[in-house]
Amino acid sequence: MRVLLHTCCASCLLYPLGALREEGLEVVVFFYNPNVHPYREFRKRLVCVKDYCNAQGIAAIYNEEYELESFLGALLGKQVPERCGVCYALRLNETARVAQEKEIDAFSTTLLVSPYQHHEAIKAAGLAAAAAHGVEFVWRDWRPGYRQAHEQGRQLGFYMQGYCGCIFSEEERYRPKKRRAVQRRTQGTKNP
Ligand code: SF4
Questions:
Q1: Does the pLDDT at position 118 exceed 70?
Q2: Among 12, 88, 133, 160, which has the minimal tally of Cβ within 10 Å of its Cβ?
Q3: Cβ atoms of residues 32 and 4 within 8 Å
Q4: What is the chain's Cα-based Rg?
């Protein structure tokens, strides 16, 4: 069986790729991440996945469009965790659509390896995308492999990002919490 594996970055690819192959499944990598901002960050993650797949001879499909406006439009006014749910749905729907178009039996996502993501929301988005496109969603809990894979990624010289992807997560990662809270209070918005 072939699986289209939505891939968020090279480090998160390592463990799911190995696990699916151990199950006897054939993996095709799919890079589709309009959630990664700004553009130079998007390119760094894309190039790292490409370099690894090319070096290893891994079949892959890359969507290199930088869909900033449509992505932000979909997320506007949403707070965590709803914001992340929309983000997962966008990426997994496109993965399921491409799997159906290319006649690939099933799809999955490397997001399932991260202990920092909303695992149940990813599962729900995957199952909904599967139902919408008539392609099987391969759900696995790969989180136990996260640390080992990221250590391996470091050793391989992969680009290691400091935040999830969107500009909101970049702010949450680097801007002091206190300052964010004060600004949101004065703007009358909720804390994420
Ligand atoms: S924090 Fe990550 S998962 Fe959530 S909306 Fe931003 S990029 Fe998507």
A1: yes
A2: 160
A3: no
A4: 17
CB 129, CB 137: distance < 8 Å? yes
The model's confidence at residue 167, banded by pLDDT at 50, 70 and 90, is very high
- Residue 84 CA: nearest ligand 1 atom is 4
Residue 110: CB within 6 Å of ligand 1?
Answer: no
The verdict on pTM exceeding 0.90 is yes
Cα 140 from Cα 127, distance rounded (Å): 12
Query: Amino acid identity of 119?
Result: H
- Which amino acid is residue 167, in one-letter code? I
For the stretch 91-113, pLDDT in tens is 999 999 999 999 999 999 999 99
Ligand 1 mean position to 82 CA, how many Å?
10
Q: Is 164 in the pocket of ligand 1 (CB under 6 A)?
A: yes
